[in-house]
Amino acid sequence: VMRPTGAILWAPLFLYQLWVTTKRASFIRYLGIAGIVGSISLLLSVFIDRYFYGKWVFVQLNFLKFNVLEGQSAMFGVHSWHWYLSQGIPTILFTSIVFFIHG
Question: Which helix (H) or strand (E) holds 86?
Fold first, then answer.
């Protein structure tokens, strides 16, 4: 399970895979596998959080609620619009940046 902000990096890869999948059967199979894996991961996350917190907690929803709906993320600092491109992605890619740029 990943942080909801990870979708910024994973969503383009997912959309690219959907675009590359040209056959209808492959597309439906791909969506089915993604749905099964996503559901299992989410359920596992909820049960692990239940075990460690001692109550039912949906951490991903709380994360989105705190950061997006309530705007509390500003307490930790606000970045300019280009931060993900100029600093975020290079930091995440680290030594792989050369391969990323090369393609």
Answer: none
Q: pLDDT digit string (tens) for 31-81?
A: 888 889 889 988 998 999 999 999 999 888 888 888 888 888 777 777 888
Identify which of 16, 5, 14, 2 has the alpha carbon closest to the alpha carbon of residue 89: 5
28 to 21, 37, 41, 52, 64: CA distances (angstroms): 9, 14, 20, 36, 29
pLDDT score of 21: 73
Q: If we measure between CA atoms, which residue out of 26, 16, 23, 18 comes closest to residue 103?
A: 16
User: Cα-flanking dihedrals φ and ψ of residue 19, to 5°?
Assistant: -70, -40
